[in-house]
Amino acid sequence: MAFPTETVYGLGADASNAQAVARVFEVKGRPPGHPLIVHLPSAAALDEWAQSIPEAAQVLARAFWPGPLTLLLDRRADRVPDEVTGGGESVGLRVPAHPLALDLLAAFGGGIAAPSANRFGRVSPTTAAHVRSDLGGDVDLVLDGGACDVGVESTIVDFTNGAAEVVRSGGVTFEALERVLGRSVGVWLGDREVNAPGTLATHYAPRASVVVVERAADVSRAAAAALREGSTVVVLAPDAIDGLPRGAVQLEPAGDDRSYAQVLYDRLREADRRRADLVLAVPPSDRDIGRAVRDRLHRAAAATE
């Protein structure tokens, strides 16, 4: 079953049922060692799934749940199957903010393990139509909750290595985390192994190649070069780009950072619908939710390097 959250649509299974979880991996084509996030009905269920929970994690849960924040904590081995964690000793937990997801979780009464409802490594779905386009008849039921409000995945904060460390940027910003905790938050630099989803170097990729162009002024030159090589080119940028060469198509401007996050995955899917060979993407700012959008664009670009 697929269901909406405020971030992206998830492909869900009973988190305590190893066989059901294994089916999620099968449908997605997901490597078995890549863990899933368990979605909970409320913060009150946190102690049922994790142990040795630091006070700082409790503070973040009170501040941001329901919402786009995942806490990576030591799992309760008697409750969380190896299939959920990829065999690791930590588990990602969050309470989603979408009302339909919360109703589903409340009715179910347990945890739902759910990655994004798309084929592994591809662009995440932010509408029910995206789910059907990707998974077709491999998913029995899709709950349609409209377009996702945030549009990129949750922020993951790891507490298994001592202090709070962000291992995936997302819907809750660094600035908001630091404001609530009253201190700086670490950032994972890839210098140690992390048992968390969305941390692979390549991910979130359309079929088209993605090239990140930092300056809007450089887009026209890059587009002209690609067109000379016979590529079909689309452009994704916050604002309209002047002077594009004939043959290059700019998708509807993405707007400010929050709007960019909301439309990012739909725009990448549109590039594929147009059968583009190349997406030239001008990223948003490197602050607030813009950081998450930049992260997704660079991971998509790495998939075709």
Written overview of the protein:
With 305 residues, the protein is an alpha/beta fold. The protein has 2 domains: 2-187, DHBP synthase; 209-302, Rossmann fold (3-Layer(aba) Sandwich), CATH 3.40.50.11030. The chain contains 10 helices and 15 strands. It has helices at residues 18-28, 46-49, 55-64, 82-85, 99-108, 128-135, 174-181, 219-228, 257-273, 290-302, and strands at residues 2-3, 10-11, 13-14, 37-39, 50-51, 69-75, 90-94, 112-113, 155-158, 165-168, 186-187, 209-212, 233-236, 249-250, 278-281. The strands form 3 sheets. Strands 3, 4, 5, 6, 7, 8, 9, 10 and 11 form a 9-stranded mixed sheet that branches. A 4-stranded parallel sheet has the order 12-15-13-14, sandwiched between helices. A two-stranded antiparallel sheet has the order 1-2. Strand 10 (165-168), helix 7 (174-181) and strand 11 form a beta-alpha-beta unit. The longest helix is centred in the C-terminal third of the chain and has 17 residues, at 257-273. It is globular, with a radius of gyration of 19 Å. The two termini are 34 Å apart. The mean pLDDT is 95.
